[in-house]
Amino acid sequence: MISPFPKSTSLAGEGRIVVKLAPNDISSLESITYQYPLKLISPTPTAEQRSVLIFLLSYGGGLVAGDQVNLAIDIRPKAKLSIVTQGHTKIFRSITPDVVTRQNLKVHIQDGAALCLLPDPVQPFESSIYEQTQIFKLTADASLCLLDWVTQGRTALGENWSFGRWIGRNEVWFTTEDENTKDRLLVRDTVKLDSANRSIGSPSLRESMYEHAIVGSLILRGPMTKSLGEFFLAEFAALPRIGARDFRSAEAREKDDAVPKSRLEQWRSTRLGEERNKQIIWSAANVRGCIVVKLGAATVEAARNWIGSMLLQEGSIEQHFGEQALMCVR
User: Fold this and answer.
1) Whether the bond into 37 is cis, omega within 30 of 0
2) Model's pTM, two decimal places?
């Protein structure tokens, strides 16, 4: 029997999202398509929404060995898109090292447009092999907030950086609509965690993680994340330095401690205590106009609470994208 329906032009694991600005100045979906094992869900928009919200999912809650996902996103001028998940992206084990699970993301963000990608962490299972490439091309007035993080695995089953290989690469490019102008690479952030191919005498992958349960990168670029980037740089500059000494007299210290602290100073003091107690380490740097924050923590929840606290304290992500954009870091 001949099917009356035309053949699908998309391949397994392929998806595409196009977001535009509607005439009422509300961001809306122009189109959204996906094929198994990729799944995309967008709740019904409301008049109060500050950005289009899309859940990036996979059938069964994870990617089976050998799955290939390719997602393309186009955000038209002045539109805004938030992407979240409904839990850890699980990477199931590979039977042999040559069976690789892959995810590829290509994003084009046009002038005045913005993307906020704050997902739950990736959770590679024991013996899994995973590679991820995310490429973002931004015009001069485009904005990006990207969080990419990975955990040690399923601690309840005793997993502790016991996967085979995890490779994550993020690239941020400056682009223009001029076909005669070449795109310019701003940031290439690559993390390679390999438990098998290690130099003789070098520590194991587990030992090299220094008891951290999670590591990650936050990358910020553009006018909508400018104040957030400045906030991270200022807070990093205010961190106590190793070997720093307080040369004030005891009397001067007591006098300064008696002065009422601002809300920001109170919040910072509490945060610094949590960073010490929960073994949270982080850094921030300006790289060709992009703010790159690297972080690690002894527990997944400590990292989630820390990044959520930073974003909520500064406030611009919620202001531009809405509180739903932050649901994975609360």
Assistant:
1) yes
2) 0.92
Both structure tokens of 178: 């001029």
If one counts every other C-beta atom within 10 angstroms of the C-beta of residue 164, the result is: 23
| Residue 151 near residue 121 (C-beta atoms within 8 A) | yes
Contact residues for 218 (Cβ-Cβ < 8 A; gap 6+)? 145, 146, 147, 148, 232, 291, 292, 293, 295, 307
Each residue's pLDDT tens digit, 250-305: 565 555 555 567 999 999 999 999 999 999 999 999 999 999 999 999 999 999 99
How do 165-174 and 68-75 pair as beta strands?
Answer: unpaired
Distance of CA 23 to the CA centre of its chain: 31
Measured in whole angstroms, the distance separating CA 86 from the mean position of its chain's CA atoms is 14
User: Are 125 and 163 within 8 A, CB to CB?
Assistant: yes
End-to-end CA distance of the chain: 53
With 0-12 CB in 10 A as exposed, 13-18 as middle and 19+ as buried, what is 268?
A: middle
pLDDT per residue as tens digits for the range 102-112: 999 999 999 99
CB 166 within 8 A of CB 193: yes
Token pair for 196: 């098998």
Read off the DSSP letter of residue 253: H
Q: What percentage of the chain has pLDDT greater than the value 70?
A: 92
* Closest to 283 in 3D by CA, of 325, 232, 240, 318: 232
| SS3 of 135-176 | EEEECCCCEEEEEEEEECCCHHHCCCCCCCEEEEEEEEEECC
Segments in the chain below pLDDT 50:
244, 246, 248
Q: Please give the structure tokens belonging to residue 221.
A: 């670029």
- DSSP single-letter state for residue 240: P
Residue spans of the domains in the chain: they are 14-239+261-329
3-state secondary structure 64-99: CCCCEEEEEEEECCCCEEEEECCCCEEECCCCCCCC
